[in-house]
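Sequence, please.
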């Protein structure tokens, strides 16, 4: 049995985009990337609530609605840009590129978010102002999503010159 991770791209977004454009990514390889992306994506939304577990139902609802709205707009925007390029296999490209893009963003974003959260915890502003803390969570999730969809829209429409 071969190594399950042997054909997974963790960081090389441009290389994967080029292979997708050339049609050499298998129908088995793309869903593997999407599965890994889904796992990472689900953890990214639980992380702030582990640090600040006392959010109310309404805070969580507001955060969830904001997040869902951002992702709906992001997916629609990426798909529209993809269609304008006249390309094919949207889901395959979306599935495959989501994982390495997320890994790259998280390598930058997670330390920055941890630093910001530790500063807020050390000053006590996190516990004393739940509105500020929930707004910060929404802001961090929104920034992550905007970066993700901007990068995805560039990578998903990748078309090597002459191809």
């Amino acid at each position: 049995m071969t190594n399950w991770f042997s054909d997974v791209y963790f960081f090389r977004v441009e290389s994967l985009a080029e292979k997708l454009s050339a049609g050499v990514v298998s129908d088995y390889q793309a869903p593997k990337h999407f599965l890994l992306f889904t796992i990472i994506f689900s953890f990214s939304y639980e992380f702030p609530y582990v640090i600040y577990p006392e959010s109310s139902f309404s805070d969580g609802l507001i955060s969830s609605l904001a997040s869902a709205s951002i992702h709906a707009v992001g997916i629609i925007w990426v798909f529209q840009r993809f269609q304008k390029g006249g390309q094919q296999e949207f889901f395959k490209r979306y599935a495959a590129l989501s994982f390495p893009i997320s890994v790259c963003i998280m390598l930058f974003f997670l330390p920055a978010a941890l630093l910001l959260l530790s500063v807020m915890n050390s000053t006590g502003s996190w516990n004393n102002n739940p509105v500020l803390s929930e707004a910060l969570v929404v802001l961090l999730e929104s920034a992550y999503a905007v970066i993700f969809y901007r990068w995805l829209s560039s990578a998903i429409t990748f078309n090597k010159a002459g191809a």
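Helices lie at 13-22, 29-51, 57-84, 90-123, 125-128, 130-156.
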